[in-house]
Design a protein that fits this description.
- The chain is of the alpha/beta class and 306 residues long.
- It is built from ten helices and eight strands.
- The strands form two sheets. A six-stranded mixed β-sheet has the order 1-8-7-2-6-3, with helices on both faces. Strands 4-5 form a two-stranded parallel ribbon.
- Helix 4 links the parallel strand 4 and strand 5.
- Helix 1 packs antiparallel against helix 2 and helix 6 packs across helix 8.
- The radius of gyration is 20 Å and the shape is globular.
Length: 306
């Protein structure tokens, strides 16, 4: 928890927590039912207009969250740097990778992207469909929902592997009818020092990246996206828990955005069945990750010296 959090009076924390909780709950009940109701109409007939309306409603919900950040967390300082060669647009198509440390990361992504990029989606487990409201909203909004099978299950039934890849391809291709941002937390889990040590990660500030998901997305979408975007998030005062953020216990967040150049040889490769391509892809991603690790170190040093 950030060191300065203890300086806040308890009454101020309670007041801020009640305000945030009440506004987010009220906003969710206001925006949620229309999304679900319009989503049901897609069972009868697919409609681009309905999709656009649902995105607008979702962005309205996100704008309420961003308003809270700007007005209820007034002491939060953002340090956002976008490299000049990265041109973002609400009409763009982007694959985005990001380091993952906290549930706050998603809120940071939403805050940053609302007025700069299309609605961010990410791969989710199919099982989430059974969570009331949340799962249905993911499905309606076009989040790629995957039925993942274990290695043991695939070993017993090899056809499952082909089915998984086909479902992933279908989920990605469905995004192509509209602007999109598809986010992939390549580490696959939130960074902790314990996980870092268990992995014996070769990076100082990152876990090992999982290359398969990115390789698949680039195989399906690579020649139809505007950019592969790398978002780097640093919490100078320590990695916060989600409630720390909304209680105003985070004073600084640094975000760096850059464009990753995709080598020509990446397009059209077969990561699953071509060992030579897989090794080359992993080596390329390792270099990307080493650059990101160096960047995080530089960002942290900047704040240590300030």
């Amino acid at each position: 928890m950030p060191s300065h959090s203890q300086k806040q009076p308890l009454l101020q924390k309670i007041k801020r927590g009640l305000t945030v909780g009440s506004v987010i709950t009220g906003s969710t009940f206001l925006h949620g039912p229309p999304v679900l109701a319009l989503g049901l109409t897609k069972l009868i007939k697919k409609s681009h207009k309905v999709d656009q309306t649902n995105i607008q409603i979702t962005n309205s919900w996100l704008s309420v969250n961003n308003w809270l950040i700007d007005h209820v967390l007034p002491h939060l300082h953002w340090d956002i740097e976008i490299e000049p060669d990265l041109q973002l647009s609400l009409q763009g198509r982007y694959l985005m990778v990001c380091n993952h440390q906290s549930w706050v990361d998603t809120t940071v992504n939403q805050y940053f992207g609302l007025r700069r990029m299309p609605l961010t989606r990410f791969f989710t487990k199919w099982e989430l469909i059974f969570i009331p409201f949340v799962g249905q909203a993911f499905k309606i909004l076009g989040f790629p929902m995957m039925k993942r099978h274990s290695k043991e299950q695939i070993a017993k039934n090899p056809e499952l592997k082909t089915r998984d890849l086909a479902e992933a391809r279908k989920a990605c291709e469905q995004l192509l009818s509209q602007p999109f941002t598809l986010l992939n937390y390549l580490e696959g889990t939130r960074f902790t020092q314990q996980k870092h040590e268990q992995q014996q990660s070769p990076y100082q500030h990152l876990l090992k990246p999982k290359a398969g998901g990115l390789a698949l997305a680039l195989n399906i979408l690579g020649d139809q996206i505007d950019a592969l975007v790398d978002m780097t998030i640093v919490y100078p005062d320590g990695i916060p828990e989600y409630h720390h953020f909304w209680l105003g216990e985070v004073s600084r967040i640094a975000v760096h955005m850059r464009k990753i150049e995709i080598p020509d040889w990446v397009h059209g490769g077969n990561y699953e069945d071509d060992p030579e391509y897989r090794q080359r892809f992993q080596a390329w991603l390792d270099q990307v990750w080493r650059e990101k690790d160096k960047l995080i170190d530089e960002m942290k040093r900047k704040y240590q010296n300030s």
